[in-house]
Structures are given as structure tokens and as C-alpha cells.
Design goal:
Family: Belongs to the sigma-70 factor family. ECF subfamily.
Protein name: RNA polymerase sigma factor SigX
Structural class: mainly alpha
Domain RNA polymerase sigma-70 region: 37-104, 137-185
Largest sheet: none
Pfam family, one: Sigma70_r2
Order of helices and strands: HHHHHHHHH
Keywords: DNA-binding, Sigma factor, Transcription, Transcription regulation
Length: 194
């Protein structure tokens, strides 16, 4: 066994790629490499989910699901993209799934005329205002633009990584990003003047 795959190592000293390589050989008996990867990205992963979904409860659920998918998928990860890109691709897909589930639930409640939709939106509004900053502004752009902004500012991904995750062309991704920022700048300017 070569030195890079010896059993004694400090996972904090390894790159993502080295940890992925270790996880390929260690999982499911040893989870040190996997745990280090999750530790590195846990906070950003949660922030991406929370900003995308709008609440911490759903974000926590999605993070747990993402971590399980990474755990079971890591052995098959081929490294064609960076680990970070693969992780946020899974996160993006899980957020979309959760968002659709919540939207279906809201439509069902609305169809049954139970009217907790108003309560939910009233409950949500203060959270956006309390958090301020990015969350407040994200409410002013459409879903796809919000996803691009979150992946860029929160996950700190490159445009090509965002394009790959969202299955869009690089130029389309950059164009949507620029338009979303322009829209937010216009909104901000109107609020400052008004």
C-alpha cells in the first residue's frame, strides 16, 4: 500500500480529490474521508439550501438528504468534475425536488380552501426582513436567477460550474446572472431614491 493510502492520516490535511480517493477505498467501513468532506461544505451547503428554500427546517431536511446521497454515491463518483461541483449539483436537484413538494402541498391546501397559505407567507416575510442582505434581495428575482445568484454568492462557484449544475450554456448563465444583478441594482436604486 502506498503512503497516500496508508491507514494513518489527518483528513484535514488532504485535498477534496485525495479525500474522494480515500472514500472510494474506505467506505462503508471507515467514514473519515467522507466526514471531512461534509465538514468542509456543511455550512455552505446549509446556507445554499436555506436561501433557496426560504426556511431552515426544509434546508435541514434537504442537507440530510444530500449528505446521504453523497455517502452512497461517493464510491461511484468518477471525478469528471470537481467534488464541490458534484456536491452542489446534488444539492441543487434536491432543493428543486423539495421546492416542488412544498409547492404541491400549498396548491393542495389552497384547493381545499384551508387558507394557511396566508399564514405561511406572513410567517415567511419577517424572516426575509430579519435576515436582510442577500435573502431580502433574492425575493425580487425569479427562481432560476435566484438559483444562479445563490450558487455564485453562497456556494462561490464559477460560472462554468453553475452552468453545468443547472444544465445551461455558459453564456446563458452569465447573461441571466448579469440581468438579475441589474434588476437588483435598479430595485435598490429605486428604494434609495424613494
Amino acid at each position: 500500500m502506498n503512503e497516500t493510502l496508508s491507514t494513518a492520516y489527518d483528513p484535514r490535511q488532504l485535498t477534496d480529490e485525495e479525500l474522494v480517493q480515500r472514500a472510494h477505498t474506505e467506505l462503508f467501513h471507515v467514514t473519515r474521508a467522507y466526514e471531512e468532506l461534509m465538514r468542509r461544505y456543511q455550512r455552505t451547503l446549509f446556507n445554499v439550501c436555506a436561501r433557496y428554500l426560504g426556511n431552515d427546517r426544509d434546508a435541514d431536511d434537504v442537507c440530510q438528504e444530500v449528505m446521504l446521497k453523497v455517502l452512497y454515491g461517493l464510491k461511484n463518483f468518477e471525478g469528471k468534475s470537481k467534488f464541490k461541483t458534484w456536491l452542489y449539483s446534488i444539492t441543487y436537484n434536491e432543493c428543486i425536488t423539495q421546492y416542488r413538494k412544498e409547492r404541491r402541498k400549498r396548491r393542495l391546501v389552497d384547493a381545499l380552501s384551508l387558507e394557511p397559505i396566508e399564514e405561511a407567507s406572513d410567517e415567511k416575510a419577517p424572516k426575509l426582513e430579519e435576515r436582510g442582505g442577500l435573502d431580502r434581495w433574492l425575493a425580487h428575482v425569479n427562481q432560476i436567477d435566484r438559483e444562479i445568484l445563490v450558487l455564485r454568492f453562497v456556494a462561490e462557484l464559477e460560472f462554468q460550474e453553475i452552468a453545468d449544475i443547472m444544465h445551461m450554456g455558459l453564456s446563458a448563465t452569465k447573461m441571466r446572472y448579469k440581468r438579475a444583478l441589474d434588476k437588483l441594482r435598479d430595485k435598490f436604486a429605486a428604494e434609495v431614491e424613494g
